[in-house]
Specification:
Two copies of one chain form a homodimer. Chain A is of the alpha/beta class. Chain A has 14 helices and 23 strands. Strand 20 of chain A pairs parallel with strand 21 of chain B.
Chain lengths: ~525, ~525
């Protein structure tokens, strides 16, 4: 695919109105072709007017038609896999093979949402039939389904340039819900963004949908994102990135004359607790795997198991030694952007200034933007005294926390803010301690992993990628898994309607053969 | 029941720390005994610490135990029906019989949520079993259920002193979800609040639950509400009242260091569209019923059908004449508070200053705080030109809008902000116009009523009491109906857990016999 660097608005490619940029190749530290167009508030306005125009027809597409559109996107993503992986590798400094896998997985996410759309359970249809003879007042027929919110603004993330970016899970779930999407491309991977954006644009055209169903804008600085969040026609926002960025958008959206829902996925250290029997039995294995998973994507992953906590005792030294040995094997690798690299160096140093000791490190950086793998250790006392030690260092640093007692385990667990995931390693002899710890962990996270690791993330019906603040801005939702669609839906009740004016999913004959809640009982009639 | 005027914190009655008040009896314009205690931030803190203490045990009660607790509240509410209705009548100037009915209906709501809890579908359990042989990576077992958010702050409403107040639907749904409640009583009905609060407090004790499960505070001015919204231990807020009040709380909560979800139900004019054939066939009947429903609760209802729109033609004069005749029968009746009365007079006058003509009125006020029934009429042109004519006048005023064309119907429909309900009267010959109008209405409301009226509100599985801003602050939720529980729940995934450490609803044997989503298919095994 030839990159033009254009913005994609409705069915068109649109030239720059606010300057342009080149992509940065972290592996070589150079800028690469072509020029990518920047737009501004005028392009945001144009994209949102088209999205709003598209809304009525797109949100009322039949389930089969919408599912076929999602499947088509999946097919077209797979068809550009090699191009997409190669360009993404250039723009991230990460191996192309990783992005071949990410493309296939992301295509799979579109297919899973196609299934969700065909199943139609996301409509959460409920029917309370009329009861004309009820006393003291008759009940009129009530029928409920979920409908799409309206145009959604999605901010692509820097760290997963496919699965959390242009054709990522946010886009898949918003389109599945029936919402047109205006995507703000991340400037860390403009070429990867264009390839995905063109796939979406072409799929919209091939499916015969209104071209306003998908647009992609890009701009310098914060202005374009602010214009998106402020625009009167946007009905919801999703964002994956830093706590500062996410909260600025969230708060800004609540200051609108009409506040809109914002789902931001921000920061998590994914604490890993290793209880004594598990530590004694498997300390070395846990230490090795921790580093292997933690260094995935050069530590630039929201699910990185950044902090491991254990009481010093049998197995602790083995865990530590295995982790040191593993981290020393890691080559320094380029980080996504020079800015991310600089913040990494600063934050890893902050940990050390705050009392974390350097246990081991990977090979020294060769390139300027290379992130060096670091393994730090701190006492529980320091972790409890210094809040920044409990905060994320985005990049290849892991922190071991040496605790002194079971009480300190609980105290440390209570000290963490909200998390995307927490992990518990425990054997049979740890049962009482695990039972004590689990309710404390449950209050603080959207996912509890038992005797496994937080990476990789599964995309399925039972997935949660969410959690209490600051993991996300609204713990009631998830951004990964089939439940992600719920962010973009609202209930509407149709009361006392004649059958032929009802939306199809609510008609008496159940023409779509949906599971429905009839008078409080689930049924497929 | 003897009223003590105390705050109810945990299991205790607590004396005033910030002054006190007497209740106002609108029918006589006098203050009545006893003194009701005011508290401040210290009482809020005490209540929330207890609620937080109660959270772990209460949120983990078994479904049967929690359902029995809700049924007990229902029984105890019914047992105080006569006392509660009499006191509420005194404090509102509305007939006791109305509150006997409201008590019975509200007890019914607690019983319905007991059923919801027993059914356990609100847990939205999903199981994706492990697939150890999957390529390229095995799938670990994933199990999801919804869990309670934490302590909830509920602001009682002024206008429905039982169903939207202390023992109202917000409290029922939060307790059903497993959340302790700290309720801010509305000062318009302190005695009715105390009776309900004591019912809840006693039910907590009788059920053997932690006393922090329910507390009720009261204070002068906004300080106590702000303290509630700001408190670090509050995890969600609900509010029913004015747009200004609701938005102040919503925005305040988003400025917290950790923003929390706020559901505010604020303002709606519930537009009623009468299409030509229906107008010709049933104009008079619609006019009469409109006034009868519109004057319910002296027009102090969020679902009041405040604005009726129709194209001038056959049946319009009959509708207008019937409405005039009906409104002239209405005696002026005391409004809930002198402040609400003053705002009513001011806002009804504003409509007239903005071009609404007075078509008819009820009997002149006898008492100072009596609200006089008014029927106003305005052209479509004025309605479109003057936004305040599309805003709520809280009280017994209804507005007819005389339109000139089918195009003006659509234009007027598009001009409204978000609504709790909209109503469409249409006959077979109106079908094409109805089909054009329905998508426009669907975008603007949580409920569409067909050939019926927005009042009464049904509380069932298919109910929605929600809608786009400013009807509510988050259109994805409802505050009435079984779906109201979703405001207080969040998903948690348990990954790779041993069966005996899983929460009961997720165990392999399905001991609670729940409907569960297993590998994407609904099943009761």
């Amino acid at each position: 695919m030839t990159l033009t660097g254009e913005l994609l608005i409705g069915g068109l490619g649109v030239s720059a109105t606010a300057g342009s940029m080149k992509a940065f190749a972290p592996a070589t530290g150079t800028l690469i072709e072509p020029e990518f167009a920047f737009g501004g508030p005028a392009e945001v306005d144009r994209a949102l007017r088209m999205a709003d125009d598209a809304f009525d027809s797109y949100s009322h597409t039949g389930l089969a038609e919408r599912a076929a559109f999602l499947d088509l996107i999946a097919d077209k993503l797979e068809a550009v896999k090699d191009d997409l992986a190669a360009r993404t590798s250039l723009e991230t400094g990460l191996p192309a093979a990783q992005f071949e896998g990410e493309t296939v997985r992301t295509a799979g996410v579109f297919r899973k949402f196609a299934t969700v759309v065909r199943q139609g359970r996301f409509l959460q249809t409920a029917i309370d039939p009329g009861q004309p003879g009820r006393l003291p007042t008759p009940r009129l027929d009530h029928r409920l389904q979920k409908v799409a919110l309206g145009p959604v603004a999605i901010f692509g993330a820097s760290n997963f340039p496919i699965s959390y970016s242009v054709a990522g899970g946010d886009t898949a779930s918003a389109l599945a819900a029936g919402c047109p999407v205006v995507l703000k491309a991340h400037n860390a991977h403009p070429g990867a963004s264009e390839i995905q954006g063109r796939v979406l644009q072409e799929a919209v055209a091939e499916a015969g949908l209104h071209p306003g169903v998908f647009s992609m804008v890009r701009g310098p600085g914060n202005e374009i994102g602010e214009a998106l969040v402020d625009h009167p026609l946007v009905r919801a926002v999703t964002f994956t990135g830093s706590e500062a960025g996410g909260m600025a958008l969230h708060r800004r959206a609540q200051q609108r004359p009409d506040p809109i829902p914002v789902f931001t996925e921000m920061t998590s250290v994914n604490p890993t607790f290793v209880l004594p029997a598990a530590l004694a039995a498997r300390g070395a294995e846990i230490g090795t795997t921790l580093v292997q998973r933690g260094m995935y994507n050069v530590g630039q992953a929201c699910l990185k198991p950044a902090i491991l906590l254990a009481v010093d005792g049998a197995g602790y030294a083995e865990l530590r030694d295995a982790a040191v040995a593993e981290v020393e094997k890691w080559a320094a690798r380029p980080m996504l952007t020079p800015g991310i690299h600089d913040a990494y160096v600063r934050n890893a140093q902050r940990h050390q200034d705050n009392g974390a000791a350097l246990l081991g490190q990977g090979a020294a950086p060769a390139g300027e933007a290379d992130g060096q793998a670091l393994l730090l250790e701190v006492t529980g006392e320091r972790l409890l005294a210094e809040p920044t030690l409990r905060e994320e260092v985005f990049g290849p640093t892991l922190l071991l926390v040496k605790l002194t007692s079971a009480e300190e385990v609980l105290e440390a667990a209570r000290a963490f803010r909200g998390q995307l995931s927490v992990t518990l390693h425990a054997d049979a002899a740890d049962r009482t301690a695990a039972e004590q710890l689990l309710p404390v962990l449950e209050r603080r996270t959207g996912r509890i992993v038992f005797n496994a690791f937080s990476i990789p993330q599964e995309v399925s019906y039972a997935s949660t990628h969410g959690g209490p603040f600051p993991a996300t801005s609204d713990s009631r939702f998830t951004s990964v898994g089939m439940g992600a669609i719920e962010r973009f839906l609202r209930p509407v009740t149709y009361q006392n309607f004649p059958d032929d004016l009802l939306p199809q999913p609510l008609r008496e004959s159940n023409p779509l053969n949906l599971w429905r809640l009839v008078d409080g009982e689930l049924t497929q009639r």
